[in-house]
Structure formats: C-alpha cells, structure tokens
Amino acid sequence: xxxxxxxxxxxxxxxxxxxxxxxxxxxxxxxxxxxxxxxxxxxxxxxxxxxxxxxxxxxxxxxxxxxxxxxxxxxxxxxxxxxxxxxxxxxxxxxxxxxxxxxxxxxxxxxxxxxxxxxxxxxxxxxxxxxxxxxxxxxxxxxxxxxxxxxxxxxxxxxxxxxxxxxxxxxxxxxxxxxxxxxxxxxxxxxxxxxxxxxxxxxxxxxxxxxxxxxxxxxxxxxxxxxxxxxxxxxxxxxxxxxxxxxxxxxxx
Length: 253
Fold this sequence. Notes:
Number of helices: 9
Strand order of the largest sheet: 1-3-2-4-5-6-7
Radius of gyration: 17 Å
CATH superfamily: Alpha/Beta hydrolase fold, catalytic domain
Organism: Kitasatospora cystarginea
Domain Thioesterase TesA-like: 27-248
InterPro entries: AB_hydrolase_fold, TEII, TesA-like, Thioesterase
Shape: globular
Number of strands: 7
Largest sheet: 7 strands, mixed
Pfam family, one: Thioesterase
Keywords: Hydrolase
Number of domains: 1
Strand content: 5-15%
CATH class: Alpha Beta
C-alpha cells in the first residue's frame, strides 16, 4: 500500500481546527449523501482536547466532479490508505448511518494491520450482520427526495433548489446503492470496543437491530438510546459529545 501524497490526503481528510497537543484523534465518517462539513460542530466542540478529522467522500461539494465510489469495501480501502499512517496517537472512529458500517470495515482493516482503533462509535445503524431488503437507490429522483425529507437529514430549502438537487442526487443515490447492497463478509469479530448510539424512533434501525453490534466485538460494548429519529444526534449534540469524550478517555488512558 503506497503512502498517499499530501494532496491526496487533503482531498480525503479535513481538519477544521488545529489540535497539536491533543492526546487522541477522532475520525468522523458521514452518512449517505453527507459531507465532512456535517462534523464541523463536533470539531469545534471537541478541539483542541481531541483532534477531529472528517472524511470527504468523492462526488460532493468540492469533490463533486470526481466519480463516486460504488461499494463500501472500496470506500473502506481508500479511507484506510489515507489513515493507515496516523499512528502517533490513539484513534477513535465515529460513523453515522452508512458511516457506521464504513467505520466497522475500516476498523477491520486497521486491526489486520495490527493496530486497531481505540474505540468505534456506531451511530444510527443496525449491526453489520443484520439485513433489510432496501431499494431506495432504485427510486426515481422524487422518491429519493421523499426519503431524504422523511429522515430530516437534509435542509429542506436545499431540497427545493432543483439546480443543486441535480448536483447532489447522483452522489446520494450512489451512497444508497453502496450501503443497500452491502453484506458483511465472513470474519472474526473485532477486538475494538464498540459504542452504539441510536434514536428510539429511528425508522432505519430498531433498538434491537442496533444491539446486534454487540456481536461484532470481543471487547467492551455499550448502547446509548436517545429520544428521536435517524438524526437524533442533531438535537442531542451535547449528550453525544459527552459519550464520545468519556469513552475516548476511558479507552486511551
């Protein structure tokens, strides 16, 4: 695996605030259709005590001219190449929805390197071994927009701008295809501790489905359930940040 150039790294990994004296890093992985900027408030709140890095997937915002990546496996391989050299301090991974599955696959790759992450935060997503037959990516544009509005994860004013919609819908559809066609490949559970977080009214993941994350680690497992739906974290930011800070401290010394 070749070391990425600084230009490649900067395309993929965004640092909104400097935190040179931090004792730990948190790598944040966006949801389907999401971008690195979703985690700007997390970086603002946790820095400089924790260095927050956010992944920018191809096909959106300043990378919208690049082709999107079609599978979770390939996306995990690409992100792994970017972060494999971040070994000077403990690394936590936080992924929401699609990002949680990507975080799981990234943790598998890092453990195979012999240096798994300190903790994996899996937010708003059922366990990797659970399965629902979902075909949102096959809907027409109106159907895709209806899905986004139903999850309340995208600004409704943005959804009403047809020109912007034409730019972002291909990337959103690609993300939905990637996560809806994902199947957990056979393999041993992680040794990385897992912290699962979810909303109690999330239509994409029941609490029982989220509990299935416990099967994915031989390490510690904890579950936190918040009032709300798929984007519960937008209204419970302070509590979620406390979970992140406390668990990172517990697992990084």
